[in-house]
Design brief:
- This protein is mainly alpha-helical.
- The chain has a single domain, classed as Four Helix Bundle (Hemerythrin (Met), subunit A) (Up-down Bundle), CATH 1.20.120.
- Helices cover about 60% and strands about 0% of the residues.
- The protein is built from eight helices and no strands.
């Protein structure tokens, strides 16, 4: 898998905005958890570092498990993790795109193992277009 700063396009303030939008759409209050500063520090320290894609999902999972947001915490980090690869997801047939989005979100929220995530990514990787074909880079 390609090593690059997968999280670099998403600042902590962007995560806070995503959480606010999710909370507003569900009409729940925007509240920050007691570990927000720990999660923010973890995020900001990791986001500019080159890493494999699965390591980027690990950062999302670790931050999520710190519960920096009271409401929509898991949804926030699942959304961010899917946005990292949205351009590739869009190149998949709709059924495979749905499976990949779901698999990534479930991994970040601790519902499937890393082995299951990797199997899901490998399955989708066979369908993704290479950089030479579409201008997108592969995993």
């Amino acid at each position: 898998m390609q090593t690059k700063p997968w999280l670099n396009g998403m600042s902590w303030d962007d995560l806070v905005t995503i959480n606010q939008l999710l909370c507003q759409s569900q009409k729940v209050p925007v509240e920050h958890g007691k570990n927000q500063s720990k999660a923010r520090q973890l995020w900001e320290n990791a986001r500019t570092k080159p890493m494999e894609l699965t390591a980027a999902f690990d950062v999302c999972k670790q931050c999520s498990h710190l519960f920096p947001f009271t409401f929509n915490n898991g949804n926030t980090f699942a959304t961010v993790s899917r946005q990292i690869v949205e351009d590739w997801i869009e190149s998949l047939p709709s059924y495979e795109a749905h499976l990949l989005r779901t698999g990534i979100g479930h991994y970040v929220n601790g519902k499937i193992s890393k082995q299951e995530l990797v199997a899901t990514l490998r399955h989708a990787e066979t369908t993704w277009k290479t950089a030479g074909e579409s201008g997108r880079s592969s995993l």
